[in-house]
Amino acid sequence: MNIALAGNPNTGKTSLFNYLTNSYEYVGNWSGVTVEKKVGKLKGDLGLLVDLPGIYSLNPLSKDEGVATNYLLNEEISMILNIVDSSQLKRNLFLTLQLLEYGKPLLICLNMIDVAKSRGIEVDPTKLAQKLSCPVLPIIARTGKGCEEVIKELTKLKTDQAVDFRIDYGHLLEEAIERLINLLPDDLSLPRRWLAIQFFEGNQLVQETLTKHIDKEKLDSLYQELEEKIKTEVKSLPQYIHLRRSQWLDQVFQESVTQSKKPEKTLTDRIDQIVSHRLLGIPVFLLIMYLTFKLTFEWVGSPLSDLLGEWMEGPLTETVLLWLQAIGASTFIQDLITQGIIAGVGGVLVFVPQIFMLFLLISFIEDSGYMARVSVVMDRLMESVGLNGKAFIPMIIGFGCNVPGVMAARTIEQPKEHLLTIILNPLMSCSARLAAYALFVSVFFEENQAIIILSLYVLGIVLALILAKIFSSTILKHEKSVFVVELPPYRAPRLASLARHTWEKGKGFLRKAGTFIFAGSIIIWLLSYAGPSGFAVEMDESFLAMIGGVIAPLLIPLGFGTWQAGAALLTGFLAKEVVVSTMSIIYSVADEDALQTILPQFFTPLQAYSFMAFILLYIPCLATIAVIRKETASAKWTWFSVLYSMVVAYLISLIIYQGGKLLGF
Amino acid sequence: MSTYLLADLPAGQIGQIIDIKQMPSETYRRLLDLDILEGTVVKMIRKFPFGGPVSIEVNGQQIGIRRRDAEKIEVTSI
Ligand SMILES: Nc1nc2c(ncn2[C@@H]2O[C@H](COP(=O)(O)OP(=O)(O)O)[C@@H](O)[C@H]2O)c(=O)[nH]1
After folding, report:
1. pLDDT in tens, A446-495
2. In chain A, what residues touch B29 (CB-CB under 8 Å)?
3. Residues of B with CB below 8 A from A486's CB?
């Protein structure tokens, strides 16, 4: 048995889903779109619960929103679980009406009754159930209150019972519905009246389905005829239908909802007076970002990372070595495991505390309701470069790691803006690159470390804005986008859901370390260990040196035309943090301290800066490329994001190095 | 009773929508989804500087829309 869970965005759908299901049956994407698809096993062996994306209406605005409608059109479902926010009841019920018209048994979960109560709204579930002719259960999905009853009620609900729900849409529309229904073949398994109403609402997906059975011209003329007739009253058919539903709902509300005087100023209003202040908004946002970075990179994340790093370099490596010697492993194996795998994978794993810390804070910002405000506060700036405020959030997340940054672009409806937001994300300097900067600034710019690093972050942001402007007025020219953002009330996030969201974002990073960074480390190490003349060769004679030597000449104009730099950049493609570990392998030094003393022999400060800028820009790392490929579903745009980065990196480093030389640095 | 463009409604004031002029159909549809149409009562919460977006309150729900779209919505102050 398949039960579909449907509701508006931000109504507590995820919370309810988690309460009603034991485990996932499937987690992935809906085909053709970038919306997450979750199917869970319902408690009490009731069957499967399919989480439909949050929508306001079955009439979709974008491909992503069409998922729910497509599901209703093409899949077999037994019943619908509709969650509504009782503090926003009327708006939520517009969707409910469309779902009721679909004719499958439906159960309404009246969520957020606590919020409604605090706003002086009292809903009578029994009366509402009578009016809507379906069961209505009050719940608080945040605490799980009432969720047991939902399971019980689902067991009782008869799946085969057809629901006869209808609103009178007035004789003009009813007549047209009747005419359309008569044109449909008898053996159609979809609910006819629902199809007809959706069609007159302008639902493209339904229209496509109907053209399989009825002439397109016939359909168009039906639609236009009706629209002509009602034009005297209202502007358009969709608006007409909305108004009829609205009137119908008002009647229902008279009997089932009471609104007492609502409180003058809610907590949300008070918080917004500061954080969404028209002038203070941006400074407050910058402050919050500053605190996020402090927490991640200084106060909590980095100290933990350091501890982890020390443990891996010291006790872990020693224990493994002892154990390997005990079982009599050859020196080759010993070197491979300690110098290749532990150094390589470990070098990435040390970033786990930082990454998880950042994701925890970002989840907090999202769950609390602040994220939506950020997009409003930043919209003006982003609009001027052809993006919208929602594109700012992925950029911020990109500072932590580009992979979730690219994924966060999903919320952007306009397809070209979505694409643009994705391909520019690698310009955001992620935490992996920080490792490389940290090394170089400590050697070459000891006095001005913070400024130099900051300048690289700014370079990334400025380039992203400039390129956004260029791309959006050339190859990605597009219509002005929809920017209508709901600003939910602030809510204190719950620990359990924070943990869950953090884990969902961060687990990909762990997977990356376990898979191709693992494989990559082995390959790099082997390339540096072997050469044309055999194994255990001098580094200069290794395959790695040969490969690095091939690209070195290209890098001469940029100031770092050595095979070592070439090899480090090549391996950095796997993950940017690998640049540092490759350099320490290449310069055959034991640790970073030793690397610091040897680097000045190979770089001048100007060359070092040019090199850092190049590391920032030259290519998205492998994991980012993979996720760009997945999210854009286009090989062409994936290639584009790789190629434009190379071109930009080359130009910028060229300007820095040649310009710097002219200026006498 | 005077009519304004929503974008010109001073912060803190309440108005009722009397007309929504030509705007991108997607934006119009999204507004309809949020139950914002002729007859709806809206309150201006705040306007962001340099022609930035505006925050409005509708049926107890806050919504951010662009200034350009707010200039297409005509309201009477009440
Ligand atoms: N006060 C209150 N908060 C709730 C309730 N249900 C969900 N929430 C909160 O609303 C926010 C959004 O919930 P979520 O399940 O992510 O909603 P979704 O976006 O529809 O999937 C979270 O912070 C929840 O903790 C409820 O019944 N009462």
Report:
1. 888 778 888 998 899 999 999 999 999 998 877 667 789 989 889 899 89
2. 59, 61, 238
3. 34, 61-63
Q: What CA–CA distance (Å, rounded) separates A478 from A250?
A: 39
Read off the pLDDT of residues B21-66 as tens digits, 9 standing for 90 and up: 888 888 898 999 999 999 999 999 999 988 899 999 998 889 999 9
* Cross-chain Cβ contact B30/A487 below 8 Å: no
DSSP conformation class of B22: S
Q: Which CATH class is domain B3-77?
A: mainly beta
DSSP conformational letter for B15: E
- From residue A79, give the alpha-carbon distance in Å to each of A40, A72, A111, A564, A642: 15, 11, 19, 63, 46
Query: Helix (H, G, I), strand (E, B), or coil: what is residue A80?
Result: strand
CA dihedral A549, A552, A554, A555 (to 10 degrees): 170
Query: Greatest CA span in chain A, whole angstroms?
Result: 91
Q: Is A380 on the interface with B (CB under 8 A)?
A: yes
- Who's near A55: CB < 8 A, 6+ residues apart? A6, A8, A9, A65, A68, A95
The pair phi, psi for residue A86, each rounded to 5°, is: -75, -10
Question: Which residue's CA is the nearest one to ligand 1's atom 17?
Answer: A12
CATH of region A2-156, choose from 3.40.50.1370, 3.40.710.10, 3.40.50.300, 3.30.70.1130: 3.40.50.300
Residue with tokens 């006498």: A664
Question: What CATH number matches the domain at A171-259, 1.10.357.10, 3.30.420.40, 1.10.287.1770, 1.50.10.10?
Answer: 1.10.287.1770
Q: With CA atoms as reference, report the closest residue to A609 among A553, A536, A659.
A: A659
Q: Tell me how far apart the alpha carbons of residues A425 and A432 are, in angstroms, rounded to a whole number.
A: 14
Q: Which residues of B touch A (CB under 8 A)?
A: 24, 26-27, 29-35, 37, 45-53, 55, 59-66, 68-69
Predicted TM-score (pTM) of this structure: 0.82
Mutation target vs A (from B20, B33, B46, B56; most A CBs, 10 A cutoff): B33
* Chain A residue numbers touching B41 (CB-CB < 8 A): none
Running DSSP on this structure, what letter comes out for residue A490?
A: P
Residue recorded with tokens 């109403």: A197
Q: Is some CB atom of chain B closer than 8 A to the CB atom of A276?
A: yes
